[in-house]
Amino acid sequence: MEGRRRSPCHGRRRRRAAETTLMSRKVRELRRLVPGGTAVPADRLLLRTADYIVRLRARIEVLRVLSELAAVTTNHGCCHVDGDDASRL
To answer: Basic residues compositional bias: what residue ranges (predicted)?
Structure first.
């Protein structure tokens, strides 16, 4: 008994279906991660994701600068009280 012959397109269809499934999974994940992502169509979701990344990078930069400022303030003793200065408090 001989096996069925598959059409040459069979592998391409299966691959395309797998790619579609993977893309759908990635879109669902983006919708979960990006604020407001559940309320927009997929093409707008990509724009919203790009905007969200820009905002996150800006927040990271602000936090980095604040962290450096706090380290400089702490290390240079601008708020340090010496023993002699403590008596004046």
So the answer is: 1-16
